[in-house]
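Deadline looming. Please check this record:
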Amino acid sequence: MKGFFKWVVQFVVALISILLISGAPQLITGFQKGELLWEEYIETLQFHMKSLWDFRDLSVDYYIGRGEVRQVPVFPQLFENISYSLQLLFLALAAAIIIALIGTFITMLLSEKSRSRVKLIFYFLESFPDILIILLAQLTVVVIFQQTGVLVSKIAVIGDDKIYWLPVLCLMILPMIQLYRLSMLTFEAEERQMYVELAKSLGFGKAFILFLHIFRNAIISVFFQSKKTMWFMLSNLFILELMFHIPGIMYYMSENLSGILFLVTVLSFFLPVFLLYSLGEWYFIRRMSRGGAAL
């Protein structure tokens, strides 16, 4: 019950914080004029709360050029942009976690010398900027098409088409490398624990110890460390949508930024991410409190 109350408090505080930030442009405008527009700020917050309450009729301003603005309903038009961005984000996160864990598992089976070489390669790749990775991926697709006539993936969204695997690949590479580095540190720390030495003395194989013991304990740390990876991916999502001309919500928001659109966008990302990590945290803490393994 205490854990549930803590979860509710965190959720409510986060929602209130997002709401307060959504009205910040009014205060910033006032500061630029040397005024404190508290009344306008409160009215903006009230408007945002009312808009969220009637979310089915919620609409935002869409700038069509030459100062012209028209109202665009969030549902279903903008909801498609939001869902597309969320699909790319969670597919990339899942791929990054899975590949990082598989890579960690394989690396841990190698000798110390080979393990150091593999880690050095991954650490070098981590220094690559995300824009360069996207450009290299798009250039590779173009070269393959020129040489073979086979289009393995579209390099930009045109019309109502959607592309997935290439944007997901580009979005997950750097987070995967980060998770791999963190996973290696965690796995190697677990490898030095006494229970591993005990398992070796009992005659258990390296792969058996790695999967049945080290993995089941290290995965908890990897899960909590992936929170930072998620926020890193969010910062890269805008660049990805811009480079692939993806009609996602990050690109749309940059072109049509408003308080209510900011509120809707942040909530659309915050709610599923908060729910995912809250459920994961509850599961792992529950298992740990019972004295069992994570899985």
